[in-house]
Amino acid sequence: MHNSCSTMQSHFVDITTEVPEAHPVAPPPKQTTLQRLKIWIKETFFSDDPLRQFRGQPLQRKLILGAQYVFPVLEWAPKYNLKLLKSDLISGITIASLAIPQGISYAKLANLPPILGLYSSFVPPLVYVVLGSSKDLGVGPVSIASLVMGSMLQDEVSPIEDPDLFLKLALTSTFFAGLFQAALGILRLGFIIDFLSKAILLGFMAGSAVIVSLQQLKGLLGIKHFTKKMAIIPVMKSVFHKTDEWSWQTIVMGISFLIILLVARHVSIKKPKLFWVSAGAPLMCVIISTILAFAIKAQHHGISIIGKLPKGINPPSTDKLIFNGSHLSLVIKTGFITGILSLTEGIAVGRTFAALRNYKVDGNKEMMAIGLMNVVGCTTSCYITTGSFSRSAVNNSAGAKTAMSNVIMSLAVLVTLLFLMPLFHYTPNVILGAIIITAVIGLIDIPAAYLLWKIDKFDFLVMLVAFFGVIFISVQYGLAMAVGLSILKVLLQITRPKTVMLGKIPGTDIYRDLHHYKEAARVPGFLILRIEAPINFANITYLHERIIRWTEEVEENNLMTDFSLQFVVLEMSAVSTVDSSGVSLFKDLNTALGHKGVELALVNPLAEVLVKLKKADEGHNKIREDYLFVTVGEAVASLSSTMKRPTVGEEVQETVVEY
Amino acid sequence: MHNSCSTMQSHFVDITTEVPEAHPVAPPPKQTTLQRLKIWIKETFFSDDPLRQFRGQPLQRKLILGAQYVFPVLEWAPKYNLKLLKSDLISGITIASLAIPQGISYAKLANLPPILGLYSSFVPPLVYVVLGSSKDLGVGPVSIASLVMGSMLQDEVSPIEDPDLFLKLALTSTFFAGLFQAALGILRLGFIIDFLSKAILLGFMAGSAVIVSLQQLKGLLGIKHFTKKMAIIPVMKSVFHKTDEWSWQTIVMGISFLIILLVARHVSIKKPKLFWVSAGAPLMCVIISTILAFAIKAQHHGISIIGKLPKGINPPSTDKLIFNGSHLSLVIKTGFITGILSLTEGIAVGRTFAALRNYKVDGNKEMMAIGLMNVVGCTTSCYITTGSFSRSAVNNSAGAKTAMSNVIMSLAVLVTLLFLMPLFHYTPNVILGAIIITAVIGLIDIPAAYLLWKIDKFDFLVMLVAFFGVIFISVQYGLAMAVGLSILKVLLQITRPKTVMLGKIPGTDIYRDLHHYKEAARVPGFLILRIEAPINFANITYLHERIIRWTEEVEENNLMTDFSLQFVVLEMSAVSTVDSSGVSLFKDLNTALGHKGVELALVNPLAEVLVKLKKADEGHNKIREDYLFVTVGEAVASLSSTMKRPTVGEEVQETVVEY
């Protein structure tokens, strides 16, 4: 059967070769520069076409839609009902129980007073509820941003010697982070965070997890004098040079609770239904350990405790923002990096769960929401917050239906702030260490790393660079190196585009890569190449040399027993654009090939390419109309009819030479 | 006739739809990571396949070729004859006549003793003749490198207070420049300079021409105290704040000689046969003006003259290279910047004239040649040299045939150094300015700029950035900004790849862009998109959103009267590679489309893409074998046979809905 239609095929080719009126390459529709610019701007900055939903709506509806666009809360709030509230209540309480100990621990990670962790779990969620478009995001401080902010700021200011200034710097850089995040959203530059690829984040998170866990050895071993550096070397130093400071009571307590937490986590992973085990575990451990510590007067046995915590809700902190003085550049830098990092985490988490539950989160809107959340936050004693991996996971598995669960959580935190703070007086620091370790250990994803290795070795390399960069140098440099490497790869792909030799699949009119489709065979007298990248300043030199080399190679291997090379056909379907340097390539090729008596034909040049070629040709027309074709098949058919040696149609099918 | 075969076509489609065994997508041949790595390295660093010419040659021939590869001189020297010598002699003398005054004035630009300019026009050309592969390059000191080196070094050391140390630093940074240039060549990183596109060079050259010309106002107006800065503002300042220093005699002399030179140049442009007019003009002017100055005792009329110059050839200067002490980092930095700048100028000039006369220059070899030239140079009292725009232009128009003209020039310079130095005692500085202006004015290419504007507005912008950057900020920053902008554009193209909707060209089996080919029409029930870029971390988010938006748009515009959208077909011919993030796109699309009851099919995934998809699929196979097709035609044919509504074959051809 296949044969029959294949013969029909070759028969069809015959006809067109005898009558070489192939389908003409259409001149693309005219476009003014302004039109092109408009399209470019739309595709680049408004690719999600935000105004689409407004079209053809009555004014009133438009207004409502507009309001809903700015405040997503207006979308779901009206439809809110008791049934939803019930599930949100449960999930809200659950994340609260996680948020409180987490908040305290992460604040310590950032070298800030523990209470700030709770402040930051109260105000920001309320802001997000109004502006955010995700239903599952659990908002609050996160380990990585806290860690980076802490380590970057302490390069200039010691949190022990000058805690007040340190706090001011933290709040100010939170302000800049928020400003920067909102700006990205408003300017619709959301795609910037796309440059943090999965590979990078994988390595970066694993690296940070390792560093953070090691940092916790301070609490876990009860060491008092500990390095403030983030890199692995100094940390290990201060661990093993301070063995005299190790306190066995702390170690025993720490290890045992760590084991409990890890087991709880393991249970929930194995049986997702038991999510509440790992979700509730931290709070349980805090309560138990606190009672224990209180009972045995832990502080007298070398087990350090949190100690007195102030009562009451967030004090305003506008007075704490300092925009002058010597540290400005530091806070801006810190704001930028922590901003980007927390944004990446927030957006990634939001997208993940949106995909899971099949709804959309608008990247740019999310950025504005998170940004404003931080701007507001920094005026009410909150340091940088975003959508957190751990909280959102718990929130989702606890069955959260809407962002309302964030409100519940922040109410729970509010109650804690108002009445329950004294209870944390005896909470041992070691327990916080254990909680942090359990949280971050989940960020190390070995299977994903293995998959990376399998799919793309280069991405694996990028991941390693991020990982070791973070561990041995510093969080920000590790990140920078990995990003640089990925961009370099993209640039290299542009500078060295693939050129593939095509052959005809016998019995069809299909031309494919000779090395991929073994049955494909070369057509005598032709060299058919496809160029697999836009042609621009960065690769014309290479492409010119490479194509000439192809022709030379073809001529050298005397593949063409009785045919000499007569036509070079460039398959241009994959050449999405050319720039002004690019167009010159064809002129140069024409001249170079002309010297060899070989002619150049182009197949399926795309609209933009066609336009630019025409413009460049004006006056001295180099690419002749009749050397443009829509398909390789038609090019071969109509060119072979003009071939010097009398061989067309059928023969083109039969006398194909194996490569 | 076309009709007949078109019906045959549709008929053919019929058959395959009834028998949907389309041509299978072949699994690509197995390749180990090592093999892939080897290919990658070859294509990236040895794309010119330098060893090809050696293959299959007898040993002796191999040795000869090898020697010729290292010393291009061996290629042309044996074939050298008197006829060639004649033209090389003329051009050699001509550039010598230009080189001598130029050398002196450029050395001044670099705050170095004038004699160094002549030293640098003697040794380096001889080195280049042996190693270089260009026939037109005129080697010697150049204005831009001289200026940059002079201004960078004087930031730390004053050439007036400590001329000896300044000289040492200049020679040492020349050494580093050479080292760096040679290293680029040896490591085969030649493509780095490809990032300096034509657009950039156009703007850069024009900008430098303006700046250098303005610098010459010093000599032309006879101003004694002049800024050493390169930007336009300070230059104009010192021109108009020093009006008291203007000397009318100098101005008269300068203007009149400038006019003579420009007229001479104009004549040679109009009548290429009269090239010798512009070629000989500089030397003539020098001689006449010198005699004139001697006759009228110019120095007593406020016309500054070169004055006494030491006699004798280059003294060795190995003892002047200092690799220790506080200035090391400065000389390395200076070496790097001047190195890359002079390299760009040299290679650009080399390539330009090679294209003009249709021969090849090997970028990497040129870099080694220029690099070694400078390394040798700095041991013989030469500061940084390269292929100079002005000299090469004169050299070429004077009819140089081989690099021998450089030998002639350096011999002429040798004779000058040994015997003729006293004659330059009375040469007025103003004449040097006039010569330089005439030389660089040719670098401003308005028509090319206009063509740029016509072809690619963005490249035009890049050119403007380079131009104004050079004029108002500085040469190196102007360059950096332009390069950054070009790279940004490339990255944007990657982040926002084009997705085009394809339609069927009636009466054929060809699918093309609906907006380009107006006659093309959509196939009911299908959405056929082609993705026009590699899929990677930087664009998956965009592509996912964009493709979903396409489907929504198609569903909204109820184009499909009685057909609902059932298949999304992705034409993957233009997707040259995917990375690990890229493969996830297809999984996500599958799920997202699944929710809409739409199925995803891929057409012609290239070998690399196919391999990675397979690897990513292992275990949970997401992309089903029978949803891979070789051509869109076959995809449509065999899918429509599985379509829910009973409509296949013939109808698919006829009931095409206009878009």
List the topology elements.
The structure is a homodimer of 659-residue chains.
Chain A: H1 2-18, H2 33-45, H3 59-70, H4 73-76, H5 82-109, H6 115-119, H7 123-131, E1 139-140, H8 143-153, H9 163-186, H10 198-221, H11 232-240, H12 248-270, H13 275-295, H14 328-356, H15 363-378, E2 386-387, H16 389-397, H17 404-420, H18 429-441, H19 446-455, H20 457-473, H21 475-495, E3 499-504, E4 511-513, E5 526-531, H22 540-556, E6 567-571, H23 580-595, E7 599-603, H24 607-617, E8 628-629, H25 632-641, H26 650-654
Membrane topology (chains A, B): Multi-pass membrane protein
Organism (chains A, B): Lupinus albus
Pfam family, one (chains A, B): Sulfate_transp
Give a short summary of the structure.
Chains A, B: This is Putative SLC26A/SulP transporter. The structure is a homodimer of 659-residue chains. In chain A, α5 (82-109) packs across α18.
